Structures are given as C-alpha cells and as structure tokens.
C-alpha cells in the first residue's frame, strides 16, 4: 500500500495530535503505511531518525494532549534548494510519495513548493549519483494534503483552523476570571489576545465574553477613538455594571496602520478616567493545554479525509487543503487558499481595510 508521511510544522496548536492520530490510523485502515516525520521539515531534511514508521499503538492516548507529539520547528534550510533536495532524497528513499502536512500557511506553501519541484529534484539527485534511477522512477510524483494548524484562524479556505476553538475557550476562561475580580473593585481590564494579523480570536472572545469594546486589525478605530472608548465605558458604568473589559488584538492598529497596544489603551483610559486600567497579556497559555471537543473531532474527520484524498487523487494533482467549509469537510486547492490569505495580508499592509474584511471572506464572520 501507499506510504504516507505526516508532519507538523510551524507554530504548534492544540488538536494537531488528534489529526496525527487520525492520519496514522486511517492510513493503516486503508491499507497503507504511515511514517512520522519529526520536528517539522527538519526530519525530512535529516532523514535517519527524523523519519519513523508508526503503528496503531504509537498514537494511542493522544487525543487529550495539546501540542504535537511529532514535534514542530521552523526550518529555514527548507527554503533553500539544497534543503528541498535533501527532503526529496530522504522521502524517496523511504518510498514516501504522499504527505499530510499540518501547519500554517508558511508550512503549506513549502509543501506545494516541494511537490512542484519533486521531479526536477529527483533528476538532480539521480544526476549526482545520490539516488538510483529506479528509486526515482518508483515515486515520480508527490501528492500533498494540507491541514491548517494555527490558533489564529488566519488562513483562508477553511472556516476554522485546528486549535482556534481551544484558544478561544482559554481566552474566555481568562475573561471570566478577570471580570469577577474587576467587578469587585470597579476596575477596567485591558486584555491582549493573540492572532497576529487576524482579529478572529479577539472578536469572538469579545462577543462571547461580553466585553465593552474590542480593537481589531481588520476594523481600526478612527482618530479620537480614546474618547469614544471612555464614553462607552462610562455609559455601561452608569447602568450599574461594575466591571469593564476591553479586548485588544495583538495586531490592532489605527487607520494609518500604526500599532495600538494594550498598554496604549490602558494609558488612554488612565488619562481620561482618572483610574488606572489593568493590562493582562494572555500570551502562550492561549496556545497550550487540552484541546476542546471540537479540536478533537474536527481534526479527526479532516485527518481521515486527507488520507482518502491522498489515496484516491491522481498523480499530478496540485496540493489540496482539507478543511471545513460551511460546517462540512471540504477539499480546496492550496493555491487558492494561499492567494486569498495573501490578499488579506496585502490589504492590511496597505491599510485598505474594506478589502481586508472582504478578503477574509467566509473564514471570518463579520
Ligand atoms: P507557519 O507554517 O505556522 O505559517 P512559518 O511561516 O514559520 O510557520 O513556516 C514554517 C516553515 O515552513 C518554515 O520554517 C520553512 O521551513 C517552511 N516555509 C515557510 N514559508 C515557506 C516558503 N514560502 N517556501 C518554502 N518553505 C517555506
């Protein structure tokens, strides 16, 4: 049966383990042989102990664990031709010509690059005498299925990335905890949440956590936002509410693209309200810990679908993302997802916020 390699790359996220488990067991069930590639692309570059065949029991007792048991890493060498060549060599030698890659847009982009270059990399390796011609001929094409692992929900092409739901749960728990202490002292808390250039976590946390205000990269406030923020907090105070909560996305800016940090917000409130606001930066607790139920069953379904995709896709099929679209498992060309993700980044960089919101499309429900 086909040999399927699986790797986790880039930033880890809760639920990656559920995907790994599903890919390994689906591969076995469908008659293939699963191979774990350790520490992201590094394992493929290194070969040797970096690539290990996995059995059914190797992925037991995993569903409830955060992070990734395969290890993850950034691997700058993979961007070089020599890195791609080393990966093609070791994968071909293992007879692995199908990959499930779990990672963010960088990792998936790298996978498509490897797939496109695969035949020419093999030709170079044969030319250099590092690979026997019949080894190369046995595996002339690479097939790739990508699962998006990221707490940020920052990739187009899937409604939810693996880990975003868990991160949101973690943020909500923190907001609940903060609002009880805030209420006791009539305090304002400014809470900074992760998401890089994507406001998904901040927006959904603000809605679910009942915050007074939220600052997002995709919807920067107009000049004078400080006074408006104070007015809105004072309005809710006047109704008898004792706690105030402002959520700030890590990537929040003003309309000129200048960063607005949680410290900026607290300072503005302090100046105008005569009361110090407390800042809490949640940081990496958002990325760790036990995956939510959703981040266990969703990656399980996607892992199974990814293996099916790899087993049935004809050779030469471009890389696909297996994701969630309108609450159903969906297979989307990776290039479309990368294009739409880039469109958002470019729009934010050029302060074209209407375009940024439009380009977020269905992956960002505003
Ligand atoms: P993420 O996958 O979470 O977006 P990175 O952007 O850091 O994280 O990418 C992780 C790894 O994927 C990089 O260290 C590199 O090995 C590979 N990678 C990223 N971008 C590219 C690219 N454009 N071409 C080839 N490989 C890439």
Query: What hetero molecules are in the model?
Result: adenosine-5'-diphosphate
Portion in strands: 15-25%
Low-confidence stretches: 362-366
The ordered H/E elements are EHEHEHEHHEHEHEHEHEHEEHH
**How are the strands of the biggest sheet laid out side by side?**
3-2-1-4-5-10-11
In quaternary terms, these chains amount to single chain
Total beta strands: 11
Radius of gyration, in angstroms, nearest whole number: 23 Å
Query: Rough shape?
Result: elongated
Major sheet characteristics = 7 strands, mixed
Indicate the structural class: alpha/beta
Number of helical regions: 12
Distance N to C terminus: 45 Å
Helical percentage: 40-55%
Question: What's the overall average pLDDT, rounded?
Answer: 95
Short description:
This is 6-phosphofructokinase. Residues 3-309 form the Phosphofructokinase domain. This protein has helices at 16-29, 41-46, 81-93, 105-127, 133-138, 164-185, 200-209, 225-238, 262-273, 294-312, 334-349, 353-360, and strands at residues 3-8, 33-37, 51-53, 96-103, 143-148, 188-193, 213-215, 244-249, 278-281, 320-325, 328-333.
